[in-house]
Inverse folding.
């Protein structure tokens, strides 16, 4: 093994001995100084996760969160210097993290928080003014063949728990006694201007928006939405997308871009 | 022999770079305050990796602030001291960022942060031998030819030494600067931290550096711990005000170099902007004493 290979391996494993070939000029045990590097690595990555997942942290407390994040850091250290992207698999890890099983919605709250970070840093795109979208919708005769391009920051989440309600309850100080997390809820996350917004939506809306995001035309997306939920309200869902400036482009299917 | 385009340009210390004033690390919690109050600051510095994102508030605010202030771009992820080849994708992202913001300076560390597939998010130490020297020089050459500009290399803070080292840290740095033409980002806090940790005299250390190449200075605070012998172990955590000993060392450096662009770094326990501004003003007072 190379010199740095030893060093790198010992950084991640807390039980591994201090690598050979190191010394302190005052004769102190090199392990007591190697520990600084190990703490820095673990501490900085755990802090990065704590910053990106503030509600997940609040739900389990600082001590539990840091211990859980520490296990994640060892299992899935970052593969890129872009720390804003670190933690894409954290929610999946939480899902399988046995000690957190008593908070079954924890992984979905982490998923929501990850979508918020992604939306915050997502590409900029000019959205269509609500008035312009309405005008175009009124002039088209074959609405079903329309393609709606959505803002790059936009994403959805389908949860068995009231994930948006849980998240929202932790945005303000005060009592959250009335919160009932035990019902299904979808989430829509998007950035409008500089602000990331979170909306509670139903499973039909999740299916509709996901279909649009995958390039389906309007009638196909509607069919998917109704398959997911017979109570899907197209008018309400479109109104949300239009009013939140989530649509960046409208086009007809036969129109081929050059 | 390979021709390197940057060699046709003057060395880092001679390029019109940052103003000879105090600057501050730009924290996202201070974006709006900076734009609202337009503080009298020489420049701002940002970590390059934080801005390697597609869009959103970071680019929005940095664009507005860059329009009003000189900028220093400080990399923390290139792993110049690493055993692996430099990450070309990362270097390309850096080139894009430099193209976009046209910073007055780009700097990186004499350290490694990536090994194999893992990024450790820390600045890790290397052994100072001839093999490492050649490798670091190749990496610095590659950075400068890709970015088509000289870079500044920052001296590290370290907690341990390698038995394999055959060169002094100051000689190692001096040789990199001589061979590659890069500039020196002299982190005075790192000098103090390392010298206390390794029982060296900070003044002797500073005097052994190629001070003619200093194009930027960093000042920061440290945390204090103890090692297995119960002796002082200083940790470079950028989480406290600048220590008096570091201010004194700064004064010593300025007496040798004359005024140099000086950054106040604070990355942890970030205080109110006014607190950082006061430290920058303190640095400005030191700088003005050195002016003719």
């Amino acid at each position: 093994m190379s010199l740095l290979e030893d060093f790198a391996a010992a950084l991640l494993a807390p039980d591994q001995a201090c690598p050979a070939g190191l010394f302190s000029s005052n004769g102190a045990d090199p392990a007591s100084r190697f520990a600084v590097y190990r703490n820095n690595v673990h501490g900085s990555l755990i802090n990065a996760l704590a910053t990106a997942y503030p509600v997940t942290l609040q739900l389990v407390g600082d001590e539990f969160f840091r211990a859980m994040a520490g296990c994640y850091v060892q299992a899935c250290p970052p593969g890129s210097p872009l720390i804003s992207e670190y933690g894409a698999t954290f929610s999946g890890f939480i899902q399988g993290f046995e000690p957190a099983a008593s908070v079954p919605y924890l992984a979905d709250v982490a998923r929501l928080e990850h979508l918020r970070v992604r939306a915050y840093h997502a590409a900029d795109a000019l959205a269509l003014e609500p008035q312009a979208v309405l005008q175009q919708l009124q002039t088209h005769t074959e609405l079903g063949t329309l393609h709606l391009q959505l803002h790059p920051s936009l994403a959805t989440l389908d949860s068995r728990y009231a994930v948006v309600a849980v998240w929202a309850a932790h945005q303000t100080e005060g009592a959250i006694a009335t919160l009932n997390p035990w019902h299904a809820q979808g989430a829509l996350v998007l950035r409008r201007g500089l602000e990331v917004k979170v909306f509670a939506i139903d499973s039909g809306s999740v299916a509709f928006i996901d279909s649009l995001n995958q390039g389906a035309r309007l009638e196909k997306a509607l069919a998917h939405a109704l398959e997911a939920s017979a109570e899907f309200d197209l008018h309400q869902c479109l109104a949300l997308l239009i009013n939140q400036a989530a649509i960046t482009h409208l086009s007809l299917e036969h129109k081929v871009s050059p | 022999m390979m021709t390197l385009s940057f060699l046709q340009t003057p060395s880092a210390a001679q390029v019109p770079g940052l103003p000879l004033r105090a600057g501050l690390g730009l924290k996202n919690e201070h974006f709006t305050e900076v734009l609202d109050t337009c503080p009298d600051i020489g420049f701002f510095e940002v970590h390059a990796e934080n801005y390697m994102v597609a869009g959103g508030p970071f680019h929005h605010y940095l664009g507005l602030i860059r329009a009003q202030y000189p900028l220093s771009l400080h990399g923390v992820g290139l792993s110049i001291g690493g055993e692996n080849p430099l990450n070309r994708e990362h270097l390309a992202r850096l080139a894009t960022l430099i193209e976009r913001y046209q910073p007055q300076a780009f700097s990186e560390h004499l350290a490694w942060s990536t090994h194999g597939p893992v990024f450790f998010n820390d600045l890790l130490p290397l052994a100072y031998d001839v093999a490492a020297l050649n490798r670091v020089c190749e990496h610095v050459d590659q950075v400068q030819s890709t970015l088509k500009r000289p870079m500044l290399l920052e001296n590290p803070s370290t907690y341990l030494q390698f038995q394999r080292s055959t060169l002094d840290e100051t000689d190692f740095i001096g040789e990199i600067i001589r061979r590659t033409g890069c500039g020196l980002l002299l982190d005075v806090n790192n000098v103090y931290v390392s010298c206390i940790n390794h029982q060296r005299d900070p003044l002797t250390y500073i005097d052994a550096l190629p001070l003619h190449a200093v194009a930027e200075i960093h000042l920061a605070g440290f945390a204090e711990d103890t090692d297995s012998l119960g002796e002082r172990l200083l940790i470079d955590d950028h989480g406290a005000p600048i220590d008096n000993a570091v201010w004194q060392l700064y004064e010593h450096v300025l007496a040798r170099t004359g005024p140099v662009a000086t950054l106040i770094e604070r990355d942890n326990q970030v205080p109110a902007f006014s607190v950082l501004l006061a430290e920058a003003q303190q640095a400005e007072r030191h700088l003005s004493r050195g002016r003719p």
User: Anything to note?
Assistant: Chain A touches chain B through 48 residues (CB under 8 Å). Chain A has a mean pLDDT of 93.
